[in-house]
Fold:
Amino acid sequence: MDSYKLISDIERNHVLSLAKKGLRIDGRGFRDFREISIETDYIPKAEGSAKVYLGNTLVVAGVKVSIGPPYADTPDSGVITVNAELVPMASPEYEPGPPDENSVEVARVVDRGIRHSNIISKDKLVIIPGEKVFVLFLDLYVLSYDGNLYDAGELACVKALMNTKLPKLPPNFAETGGEWLTPFKEDIEWVPLTIEDYPVSVTIAKLGDTLVVDPNEHEERILDSRLTMTINSKNEICSMQKGGSGVFTFEEISTAIDMAQELAPKLQNILKEGK
Amino acid sequence: MALYKYSVPDKLINENGIRVDGRKYNDLRPYSFKVGVLPKCDGSAYVEMGGNKILAGVYGPRKVQPRHISQANLAVIRTTYRMATFSVDERKSPAPSRREVELSLVIRTALEPAIFASYYPKTLIDIFIQVLAADGGTRCASINAASLALADAGIAMRDLVTAVAVGMVGDQIVLDLCDLEDKEGDADLPIAMLPQNNEITLLQFDGQMTKDQFLEAINLGMFGIKQIYKAQQEAIRAKFKDISEGISEMEGEEEDQEEEPREREFERENEGEPED
Amino acid sequence: MKDDIRTQFDVGDMLAAEVIAFNRTRDPVLSVRGRGLGKLREGRIIEILPAKVPRLIGRKGSMINLIKNETNTRIIIGQNGLVWVSGKDLESELLVEKIIRKIEKESHTSGLTDRIKELISNEKSR
Structure:
């Protein structure tokens, strides 16, 4: 988060001097994520949903399924659109109003993390090529901001997709013109969305010369720069975003990638736990 | 485009007085309240009523932004009610609708009489309401959540504000409308009150009723409100009880009395100076 | 000569200041003249709810003096909830933070002073 809130030099120096001694203000190690808890199928009227706590950061993702035309430039592909709202109650620094550059960044970073993994084959969302596809609206709400919306947001969005269900289409739907006749809710048969990958996001923050994972709000406000990357089940890097007004050296990027690849499997296991 | 629709039964209430969700005319839906759920907010509450899932967060008293809305002798109270895109059957656009703008105002109207705004001049009290799941009666559930969040924030209030929606199906007045009754019923009457003195802070009505029916509906609303009020008070107590019980467990003693929540007034005993 | 505050203080400095004038029509006036006031250099800041400040100070300063003496730290409590702590080492500052969080959480309960004393002696014997 770019500073809306001014951080005093004392507070900044405190975090940096702790880092030099191998410590963080909340007692974690440099490679420790905060406590994660996930609740799935949390929103009754959504076709898929998840609520995620990452420390005190709280996000809720919901998927609403619709049937509509594909994008003109990708007629053989279903549509997934990701939107993020940083709700004003999430932080004393947030103000009511339309999405600002920070919420747009979160949405787009999460979107790219999903897009470039193989989590969903968008061609499997096609009903009638060029005319009718499944359209998935994936909306992420940040309800409490305590740092690292990227990793929390990615977990919530992926988990929401993992329990998303699609309506089973009537037989010969495509052949008979693809008119969706809006059935009664109790008459719909639901089919789970096929998930083929479990991308996770790992964010590394640079505090002075130290790299730490999963920055909390305090750390995020004083960091020089951060690196968010998404890693898929094959431990490949699917996307990366550098933020903050500082710099990274080549070695630091290499170390950050190591850290992310070391931690990604743990997050992937958390995703696969439960349902 | 809506994926599905709901089937509407011929009658929303049967000959035995049972409603579509199995309730009698004066039954509230199941509810639960939890206070102090968002650590960043000065006060917060999470409320479930029927299928409604609503979060309320309060910041305040805080600095007024933009400065020109500041009032010399009172706190400015701002209420923002928003529904999540996935809270309803057909995805709602994230941009605020006119309904959300009106409900923000209506909810503020319900809460303002309770707040001692003159205690906090030149400040802003921000009340944020986020509906995560909607199931009929969201404005009333939001009012219940918001007054808990205000109390949690320690804002001085005359009383909690408690609300419920009363309606009519066929000729039967019913308490706490569910989604279907809200959409298909014959009347919708949200009421909010300061329960201790039966002071009504919000009253809206759509439908067709005789005066007798209307007054009966208000009475039924008051009956529901008294029950919800008890639950709200219990939720506030629970926050302190958890902590006290945690301590007693550690010390192995028994709690000999229930801890009363502290007087929520702006008091300054034990005034100390900044020390070395 | 015009007093330019920028010659003394810079953006990002943390100050201990006193409100010397306030009325309902104007913003408050702060002063850093006085013992213990002015720019704070080392140490750290802990934020608590302003409503908890009286409990942290204690009757006639009993609680805060207990903490300062037992942990050998310097502490300044702002009525706005910002608390400055400076100790000889990291451990004592972290202990003070732990104590303050406990007071904040349990401020409404009885027997708190005894539990704080117990916490301090437990930590010291480590």
Q: What stands out?
A: The helical segments of chain B are 98-111, 138-152, 179-184, 211-251. The radius of gyration of chain B is 20 Å.
